[in-house]
Design a protein that fits this description.
Length: about 475
């Protein structure tokens, strides 16, 4: 049997190797492995919260049985300093291509998966395991390097986030327009700003919320106007395109852009010139365009409220930030950041919250994503009553998520948010449609309907061809 000290040294070696970037392949020959082969690691256990803050972000590959406890015995040991953990608390081992199996070893305080106490359970990627007051999330290997930039609010260290940052950086180095798609609150402006920095644009970063511009001012706001061009035009205005000359123009909520303005936007993108309202002479502009929306643009094209040629031009490089509920290993990391603690300081400070609140924050589904998390952290700052934040300090929806999960219920039903495309001449003719599903939602719908594509199409109010396009986008194979 391996000595405890050797196991701890190995765990630290794994952590240090993973925390700095792609995993050193030599680390896959871990103590206790019998075949001596250097196979790739698929699953990783990552500590996301612990009473001993220096353990936060420890990662352990799951090649074979991993035993958790204060002084664990058997398999590869992951010793955890936590007074509420038993000596040998739980065992985690590979169980299949898409999961591991966790077994409670008769612990005093129990083992929980996604809030529910278990004796044995399958654990899939992004699932959370609680032992004592320590929280772990099942993650996976990635070759993508760390990409956090706290000074620019780029916070996250999970594999999906690292890979997304790499994808954004690659697109930024091209000259292609970039389209950011996804749910509200996922940080699309943060990624647009990243495109500006990584792309080396020397001019301004100009963010514009298309939905906030009055319809009759969209032309003059984007392209500028001459003095006297219309009533109230008392002075000449350059417009957002000219303000972003040699820089980046970020058009947020582009799905709300009026249909009659879209041809002029297309011309500005394709020809690199704009014409002010009231002028007869176009002006050359060199502007990097980044657009974003949570509207289903493909559905809007079908409704006739978004031009297909503009959509084709915008989708030079598509980026889809994941919803926060798909990034559980980053939730507490982001929470600490919003409470004023930088990621590189997490291991050196006192805990910010107790284990129950930490667990509730991880399992709550965050329908409004990072924006909602920031708001909850601000509420915690306003209501703190002791040395640690607790469930008593949290909004009721967070405390309710904890209670529901303990009873085997969904932590909090995600509200169905329907997003309609911008209305055409007759708003009543445009029905509200569900937004484009992310990969997780599409897989769930397919599984619940036995991969009946027509049934899934009816669920999302789309035809089967659209469902097949979504499946190709997310690399989901149809089943016979």
């Amino acid at each position: 049997m391996l000595g405890l000290e050797k196991k701890v040294r190995f765990a630290r070696k794994v952590v240090l190797g993973l925390a700095s970037g792609p995993m050193d392949p030599t680390l896959t020959d871990f103590p206790g492995r019998k075949d001596g082969l250097n196979q790739g690691v698929q699953f990783i256990l990552r500590i996301v919260d612990s009473p001993l803050q220096s353990l936060v972000d420890f990662r352990m590959p799951v090649h074979g049985p991993v035993v958790l406890g204060r002084a664990p015995e058997g398999g590869v040991a992951l010793p955890i300093t936590d007074p509420r953990i038993s000596g040998t608390h739980a065992r985690i081992e590979p169980g299949g291509e898409d999961h591991v199996v966790v077994t409670d070893c008769g612990s005093k305080n129990g083992t929980f998966v996604n809030g529910l106490q278990i004796e044995q359970a399958k654990v899939k990627l992004n699932d959370m395991v609680r032992v004592g007051s320590t929280l772990l999330v099942l993650s996976r290997m990635t070759n993508a390097v760390a990409c956090e930039e706290p000074n620019h609010s780029v916070i996250g260290d999970g594999p999906d986030f690292r890979e997304l940052c790499a994808h954004v950086s690659t697109g930024a180095r091209s000259n292609l327009p970039i389209l950011l798609l996804g749910e509200t609150g996922t940080g699309k402006e943060v990624f647009a700003n990243m495109v500006h920095r990584k792309g080396g644009q020397g001019g301004n970063f100009v963010p514009v919320n298309c939905a906030a511009i009055p319809k009759d001012l969209v032309d003059s706001s984007l392209f500028g106007h001459e003095k006297g061009a219309f009533t109230g035009a008392t002075e000449k205005r350059p417009g957002f395109f000219r303000e972003a000359h040699l820089g980046t123009l970020f058009l947020d909520e582009i799905g709300d852009l009026p249909l009659e303005v879209q041809p002029r936007l297309l011309r500005a993108i394709e020809q690199g010139e704009v014409m002010s309202v009231g002028s007869s002479r176009p002006t050359r502009v060199e502007t990097r365009l980044v657009a974003a929306t949570n509207v289903d643009l493909e559905g809007a094209m079908g409704d006739g409220t978004f031009r297909a040629d503009l959509f084709a031009r915008l989708t030079g490089w598509t980026v889809e930030p994941s919803p926060l509920r798909s990034r559980r290993e980053d939730i507490l990391r982001l929470g600490r950041f919003f409470l004023g603690r930088r990621p590189d300081e997490a291991a050196y400070g006192e805990p910010l919250w107790d284990a129950d609140l930490a667990e509730a924050l991880v399992i709550y589904p965050w329908p409004y994503n990072i924006r909602e998390l920031r708001q909850v952290m601000e509420q915690l700052l306003a209501t703190r009553t002791g040395s640690l934040y607790t469930l008593d300090d949290a909004p009721e929806k967070i405390a309710d998520a904890f209670r529901r999960s303990r009873n085997g219920l969904d932590p909090a039903p995600t509200p169905t948010v329907k997003t309609s495309a911008p209305a055409a001449a007759d708003e009543s003719t445009v029905a509200a449609r569900p937004r484009t599903p992310d990969r997780e939602a599409l897989l769930l719908a397919l599984e619940q309907n036995d991969y009946n594509v027509s049934a899934v199409g009816r669920l999302f109010q789309r035809d089967r061809k659209q469902v097949y396009r979504w499946m190709r986008r997310h690399n989901i194979e149809p089943k016979d």
